[in-house]
From TrEMBL:
One of its GO terms (molecular function) is DNA binding. PANTHER family: HTH-TYPE TRANSCRIPTIONAL REGULATOR (PTHR46797), METHYLPHOSPHONATE SYNTHASE (PTHR46797:SF1). The keyword Cell membrane does not apply. This is DNA-binding transcriptional regulator, XRE-family HTH domain. The keyword DNA-binding applies. InterPro entries: Cro/C1-type_HTH (IPR001387), Lambda_DNA-bd_dom_sf (IPR010982), TransReg_Diox_bact_type (IPR050807). Keywords: DNA-binding. Gene3D superfamilies: lambda repressor-like DNA-binding domains. Residues 9-63 form the HTH cro/C1-type domain.
């Protein structure tokens, strides 16, 4: 399984129905600059990761461990 904090940030944002524009504005950065973070085109600093976690209203640990499949896997009863 491929592990990517950048992909997790994008997936969490999308599941919360937040736009890139909104998150970028909250972080006081350009939309294109924020897009580079989600694509993994730039290195993510710890301080920026903290800011992103606050905007997304999740913990940093949640971002690292996030697995979108937990929302869609069905268990048999």
């Amino acid at each position: 399984m491929k592990y990517s904090v950048y992909e997790n940030i994008r997936k969490i944002r999308e599941l919360k129905n937040l736009t890139r524009e909104f998150v970028a504005a909250e972080l006081k950065m350009s939309t294109s600059g924020y897009g580079k973070i989600e694509r993994g085109d730039v290195d993510l600093t710890v301080s920026k990761l903290i800011e992103i976690s606050k905007v997304l209203e999740v913990s940093i640990e949640f971002i690292f461990k996030f697995d979108v499949s937990i929302f869609f896997n069905e268990t048999s009863r």
